[in-house]
Fold this protein.
Amino acid sequence: MYAIFESGGRQYWAEPEQVIRIDSLGLEAGDKVEFDKVLVLRNEDEDMQVGRPYVDGAKVVATVVAQARGKKLRVFTYKPKKHSKRNKGHRQDYTAIKVEEISA
């Protein structure tokens, strides 16, 4: 069984007992979170439900594992022949969640 759900304007593929990194939600570790914007839901018996835009009554229940920051990315820009350079870094905040249950 799997589901594709929406959170923070992005879409995520979820399977039971899977740990997913999503955009930061601002919750503490151990909190339960429920996503009801399920776009696609597929059962073990090959029954697929596609929402328009969301599947009615479907939800993904998960537990927050951790709040963390991703790897540092270097952003280097320059303009040739102008002596213009800029070096910046960026670390994206994320929430790691463990999918507990997918229900229709």
Observations:
- The chain has a mean pLDDT of 94.
